[in-house]
Amino acid sequence: MSIRGIRTIFFAKEKVAVSSDVVLVGAQNKMLDPLKLSELDNFFVIKESEEQYN
Q1: How far separated are the first and last CA of the chain, in Å rounded?
Q2: In this structure, are residues 49 and 28 in contact, taking their beta carbons and an 8 Å threshold?
Q3: Are the C-beta atoms of 34 and 7 separated by less than 8 Å?
């Protein structure tokens, strides 16, 4: 994932209400690894499937 993609997701999180979650569903490691390295994974709810979130 490029820095532009990470930035887009981060800005999406900033735009939603404070009590709302931005959920990343089915994200692959090539997307999750940069988020974890930059510690941005703490800003999102990360689930493997929609069923896990519901």
Answers
A1: 26
A2: no
A3: no
How far from 36 is each of 5, 16, 40, 50, CA to CA, in Å? 14, 21, 6, 21
Q: What is the helix (H) or strand (E) element at residue 16, kind and residue range?
A: none
How far is Cα 18 from Cα 13, in angstroms, rounded to an integer? 9
- Report helix, strand or coil for 43: helix
- Prediction pTM value: 0.64
Asked if pLDDT for residue 44 goes beyond 70, the answer is: yes
pLDDT tens digit sequence for 1-37: 677 877 887 787 777 767 777 888 998 988 888 888 8
- Whether 6 and 40 have beta carbons less than 8 Å apart is answered as yes
